[in-house]
Specification:
Belongs to the peptidase M14 family. The protein is α/β, with parallel strands linked by helices and about 375 residues long. The protein has two domains: about 290 residues, Aminopeptidase (3-Layer(aba) Sandwich); about 90 residues, Urease, subunit C, domain 1 (Roll). The protein is about 25% helix and about 25% strand. It has nine helices and 17 strands. An eight-stranded mixed β-sheet has the order 1-2-4-3-5-9-7-8, with helices on both faces. Strands 13-12-11-14 form a four-stranded mixed β-sheet, with no helix packed on it. The longest helix is centred in the C-terminal third of the chain and has 20 residues. The two termini are about 35 Å apart.
């Protein structure tokens, strides 16, 4: 399997009707209409009685459970999964290899209420990824019921991460991140953790050809309330995928393609045989660090009365407004930010930076524009 083939397949099977960050049940329902009805079932309902869909592909002996949008505002992997579904529907060597050896059960949106409101939490304001022990929410119970009935050999826990993460501390953005979760407080390298690490290592090897130094690794601190840690604790190799940021890709369409590649590669590795032998390469992936802001205005003078030169960090707040996700620029931090990086960097060259109303910028201010040396500069993506 090579990148050229995967990229050509992606553009062939990409679900054209899905675009951007706001993906709900109603969006995927349109796409599911084109799939065989025998593959689709409803496994339960959310707090607000929205259906939780499941799809089944393949007929092989290796059972793999995948789920996405456990957090309603993390939709990139959902788009990538719908693209994968289209791939599974056509005759090609990659999908044939996967589906002949594996049986997949996939939940594309576990938290449809959160997806509707574009929020991390469900309708009861509960983080489903902290409900693995209490199972207090209907969505958590659905996932556990599917897990218990299916008895998977592998689990893929698909998420999205904010733009703040870098792969290491050298100014490389984490476009994708991975984790083989711990299964105990000692974080022992158990056989199933090593298998998950080995799969991630092989996926990373391929991705490095597409996004050199653009893959991060999450901290493996143990929390049994998290679903991935719980399933790993059950002895099932579990992989956490996180869709991150790519340059100027606030709609997450480039990262969608990268996630498609990573999912298909991970499944193909399992289908063609995986052991724990390659796990040590997993630790060569740099750890994620919170070192990015969406914009940094460097060398800014904040008022005529003061001569101190500071940096201004801007972070976008994602808000659902009239059915669209709007990115609202907010002043996150005013400081010397030598060890931080901006996805966009503006050098004020010691010039005055104020609001369009000629007011001094303060942390917490929301501004679509600023004035830099009397020039109006847009902060929108």
């Amino acid at each position: 399997m090579n990148l050229e083939l995967l990229n050509s397949l992606f553009f062939k099977v990409k679900t054209a009707d899905l675009f951007g960050r706001y993906i709900t049940n109603s969006d995927i329902e349109k796409s599911l209409e084109d799939l065989s009805k025998s593959k689709i079932s409803i496994k339960g309902y959310s707090v607000e009685n929205r259906p939780i869909y499941s799809l089944k592909f393949g007929h092989g002996p290796i059972k793999i459970l995948l789920w996405s949008q456990m957090h309603g505002n993390e939709s990139t992997s959902t788009k990538a999964l719908l693209d994968c579904f289209n791939l599974f529907e056509i005759d090609n060597e990659i999908s044939n290899a996967i589906l002949n050896q594996c049986t997949l059960v996939v939940i594309p949106i576990l938290n449809p209420d959160g997806a509707e409101l574009y929020t991390r939490l469900n309708a009861n304001q509960v983080d489903l990824n902290r409900d693995a022990q209490d199972l207090s929410q209907p969505e958590s119970k659905v996932l556990r019921s599917v897990y218990n009935d299916f008895k998977p050999d592998f689990c893929f826990n698909l998420h999205g991460q904010r733009t703040i993460f870098g792969a290491g501390e050298m100014g490389k953005v984490a476009s994708l991140s991975f984790l083989s979760p711990s299964q105990d407080a000692n974080r022992w390298l158990t056989p199933n953790r090593k298998v998950a690490m080995s799969i991630i290592a092989v996926v990373n090897e391929l991705l490095q050809k597409e996004i050199p130094n653009g893959v991060g690794r999450y901290d493996d601190g143990f929390n049994l309330n998290c679903v991935g840690d719980t399933f790993q604790n059950f002895g099932v190799p579990t992989l956490l995928y996180e869709a991150g940021h790519f340059h100027q890709d606030y709609k997450r369409e480039e990262v969608r393609r990268l996630m498609f590649i990573a999912i298909i590669k991970g499944l193909h590795v399992i289908a063609t045989g995986v052991s724990e032998i390659a796990y040590e390469a997993y630790f060569q992936i740099p750890e994620n660090t919170k070192c990015f802001y969406d914009i940094i205005i460097r060398n800014a003078k904040l008022s005529e009365a003061e001569n101190d030169i500071m940096d201004i960090a801007i972070q976008y707040q994602e808000s659902l407004i009239d059915g669209e996700i709007k990115f609202v620029p907010r002043v996150e931090k005013i400081s010397i930010l030598d060890m931080k990086f901006g996805h966009r960097e503006i050098n004020a060259k010691a010039g005055l930076v104020v609001t369009c109303e000629n007011l001094e910028l303060k942390e917490g201010y929301e501004n679509d524009f600023v004035m830099i040396n009397n020039e109006r500069i847009s902060l929108k993506p």
